[in-house]
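[worker-b] picked up task from shared queue
[worker-b] task type: protein-ligand structure
[worker-b] ligand name resolved to adenosine-5'-triphosphate; SMILES cross-checked against name lookup, match
[worker-b] sequence length check passed
[worker-b] input payload:
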Amino acid sequence: MWGAVSRCQPGGMTPILAARGLTMVYPGSATPALDGVDLDVLPGESVAVMGASGSGKTTLLHVLAGILRPTSGAVTLTTASGPVAVHELDDAGRSRLRREALGFVFQQGLLLDELSALENVAVARMLTGVPRAQAEFEAARWLEALGLVGLERRRLGALSGGQAQRVAIARAQITGARLLFADEPTGALDSRTGAEVLDLLLGAVAQGRTLVVVTHDGQVAARCDRVVELRDGRVVADSSRADAGGTGPARQGFLS
Ligand SMILES: Nc1ncnc2c1ncn2[C@@H]1O[C@H](COP(=O)(O)OP(=O)(O)OP(=O)(O)O)[C@@H](O)[C@H]1O
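[worker-b] inference finished, payload out:
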C-alpha cells in the first residue's frame, strides 16, 4: 500500500515508529539539523522532544511524520496493514500516509480560519473518501467529546486559542490515526488552558494513541512517559518513567 517493508524487532514490543541514523542537511546549510538520530517510539507512549531553540526538534518531528524527507537514514512506521518505510515514499505517498495514518496538532497552519469548527474537523475525514454528511456527523461527535458543544458552526477564526487547539485535537483523531504529532501545542496558551489541552492529548494516549510532542514547556514534558532531549541535532538524553523506577514524573533534574 505505501511500500511495505519487512522488519523484525528482536525481543520486546514492536515500535510504532523507528528511526535509524537520521540526518537532515537543509540545502545551503553547512551544519546538519539532524545528525545521526536513532529513536524507537512504542505504541501507547507519550514522548516529549525537548532541546534548545535550533536543536532540531521540529525538523525531527517533520522527518518522523513524513513531512520532510531525511537526507539519509530510515523511518519505519508500523501501521495496521504492516510496516511502512516512510523515508522511501515519494511526496504523494507521504501525503497519503499523513492523511490516513497520522494526526497533527500544531500551533498554527493546519486549520482554516474561514471554515467552521465542524468543517475543519470533517474535512480531514472527507479527505479519506468519507461522504460529507457522515464526516460532519462524526466531527460533531468529536467536538462534543472535546467540550465544544454549541461552537460547531463558529468560524475557527472566532474561537479562542484553547478552543482552536481542541478543534485540532478532534481533527487529529477523527481519521482513527494511532500516532499523533504535536508541535508546541500549548505554546500560545496561558498555563491553565495549556494544561487542559495537554489533558486532552494525554487522554488520547490513555485511549491507546501514541503521542510525540515537541515542547519547550517543562510542565508538558513532566507529564509525558518519556523525554528525549536534542542538542545540535543529536539525542543527548532519553528518560522514561521506567528508568526512574516507577510511575512518577520524568527523572528529576532532567529538565533543568
Ligand atoms: N527550512 C529550513 N532551511 C534551512 N535551515 C533550516 C530550515 N528549518 C530549520 N533550519 C535550521 O535547522 C536547525 C534546526 O531547526 P529546527 O527548527 O528543527 O529547531 P528547533 O529545535 O525546532 O528550534 P525552535 O525551538 O526554535 O523551534 C536550525 O539551525 C535551523 O536554523
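[worker-b] attaching auto-annotations
[worker-b] The beta strands are 17-24, 34-41, 46-50, 72-79, 82-85, 102-106, 179-183, 210-214, 226-231, 234-240.
[worker-b] releasing lock
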